[in-house]
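Re: weekly structure request thread

Next one in the queue (150 aa):
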Amino acid sequence: MSRRAAFRRFGFYRARGMTLMEVLIATGILVFGLVSVMAALQTGLRTHARALHENNAALVGASVMAELRSIFARGTQPHGISELTPQESADFPGYKFAVAIKDISGAHGVRGGPDLGREFFVEVKVTWGDHPEERKWIVFNTVMFLRTEQ
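Done, posted below.
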């Protein structure tokens, strides 16, 4: 009896290579891993794009707030800005902002004296996206004071 036949007869013979079932299982595990990695990459890219849009929208909102703050600091009230009317951002194409200003002086039961000035609730809404189903927005709210000089 040859050595090979003896190993086969007593169960010591080991086949070289992989069976078809082992190959199929290994391929399935590989495909599952690749699909998981691709899904994670796609989610990461989508999150990155959203972060870029939100960052640009924050810059637009900060710019508009700074402009309004300078108007209020000069002691003048912005005229013609009372409702949310969208305007295109000059610095960031594709981004629109709308400003709403509401006089809230005395709204809390305390009337402002002659030296306290008036207070205004300011809302800036920044939107982006061309299609209505893709349109996203961020809203910035603050209170600004208009000091009246005596």
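The chain has a mean pLDDT of 82. The chain has one domain: 3-146.
Next request, please.
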